[in-house]
Structures
1.
Amino acid sequence: FSSSTSPDGKHTYTAWMNYDRQDLRTEVDSRIFQVDLEYRRAFRFSETSNLSAGAGYRLIKSDMTGDDPNFVDFEPSRHTLNTYRAFAVQTWNLMDDDLDVVVGFQLEENDTTGFELQPTARLSWHPDSDYTLWAAFTKSVRTPAMEEISLSSNSYLVGDKDFDSEKVETVEIGFRKQITEETAIDLAIFHNEYDDLREEEFDFSTFQSYLTNNGKGESTGVELAVDSTPTEDWSLRGAYTWIDGNFENEVLDYDLGTEEYHPTQQLNLRSYYDINEEWELDLGFYYVGDFGSLTGFDDRSRLDVRFSYEPREGMEWYFGGQQLADPYQSEFDSFDVPRRDLYFGMTWAPR
């Protein structure tokens, strides 16, 4: 990973590379290589008008093989995906900074689904310095994963080379309150409208399941978040989310369980502690519950630990572990198997 910002703060260049290899006892062995490049520029038209715009490119190369070709197979087994994107976010600060208006979009072109437009808009009002009311609208898409378009007709789950992006439109309202000098709370209520959701439809004539975009639905939820700084060197953050939904297959006309798309409850607790001027210890605990009968388990938890060392300004070394508390267990399907990961790395931003 590399990121560089010009001295005047107007130009930012970001690049990262990732290679993932899986040879576990799952249904699939995979090798996935990714490269992402991005350029961003900030424009200030006036004291009340700012624009951030840029462009990016991502390359993904994958090689996937079924452990049992008679059960899971890919055609083609090797796949290359190119994605180009452009984005812009315009911000206006009005009424002596008591009102903020944000309008933006991301336009993406990829080899699988072509052009995708994702707009967003946000309105924030600050009646006083300790209180904020806000509302937002966003349209997002999830482009198909590699296996969804390349699972062959010989597999128990058959992909679709014309599989479309899943779509969601989200409306949110909320407020933020600074309770004390050290603690603030955020409360948000949201509603999602989904279309072209992934569905697996079983065919008794072939004893195979076929991927389609026949799912649709809606969900409503609430999230409460708390930020606290007990001491100058220690920060705590936590959030709880409850969500309920109603989903259906719009072609075959039957209801789908909420658990096919998300758990009902989610909780996260994070701690950031500066041991001294050079060392930092970060801890994260995550819990999800009420999955329903589809996944075969009710809940699961996760513990992450991260140490970082900053020998000088602009340079950071870090190492840590993820999934330290939970045994291996798939959250959604056979392609999504969490692993206990150990990692290390370095970031350097020369000045």
2.
Amino acid sequence: WTLEMVDTKSPCAGISNWKASTNTTGGTPGRKNSVDAVNNDGTAPQLKRAYTTDNTTIILVFDEPVDSLIGATVSNYTIDGGLTLVSATTLAPLFNTVQLRTGTALAANTVYTITASNIRDCKGNSIGNANVAKVGLPADAAPGEWIINEILFNPRSNAFDYVEFYNNSNKIFDASKLYIANRNSSGLVSSIKALSPVPFLCFPGDYIVETENADNLSLQYLVKSPDNVLIISSPPSFPDDEGTVVALNFQGNVIDEVRYKDDWHFKLIDNDEGVALERIDPDAPSQNAANWTSAASTAGYGTPTYQNSQYKRIQTI
């Protein structure tokens, strides 16, 4: 089945202007597209996120292509922290990213805020309030800094596993250089998958969730920060009775690990299907069963992308 453009008068509209062919043959080569229609794009562009490629280069990611000339106007962007921006370039071929260069280098372990103004898409829709993004220089994670915070290993029927990570540090991490894995029957780290195929910055205090299906996750639980859900195709498997979740850094070192068991759930729960296992204290040991319990029923049995329903600080555990 081919992808067909909806409105040929809006060739730069991006994802909203493409649909799967509805022709019974699967495509319409040499003929008018089966999905041909007027695409009335009235949606303003949004600045979704930003990342760095070096200490003076920042990439802004918008949710759709932007007007390339307006995107390349450096006066349309501001950054805090005493930095100045010296150039802006709208990047081909999709024109949904803009490269900014700073006059001085970004400092380590510092979170900067970028604001985009006057940005428009190809239909002339002007950016609204979704025009701010955080950025900074990522570092490599060490044990205790990037932790496994919540595990759903026994999902409801027609649902999917998820694992939530928490940035328990003052550092910035890049999800494309962080990995999730399990251990095979021989006890070896196995099924290693990067959390993101592209740069994705995780800031201090962020809750980042990996799952196979983000839309399904939102049907099952309240997801307060949908942009912090990362999709992994064919993620590591986590059995319903017991298993191991492993977090690795860019060097391939294990920085957190949880060998969970289903009996870690609250004892009075008759059926733990669809009930996430939550870490109680981020600073308490990962492998202590007393530091894990079932997500509260009042929170819908799971809290992906925000603080655990059972969170509390424990002096000694």
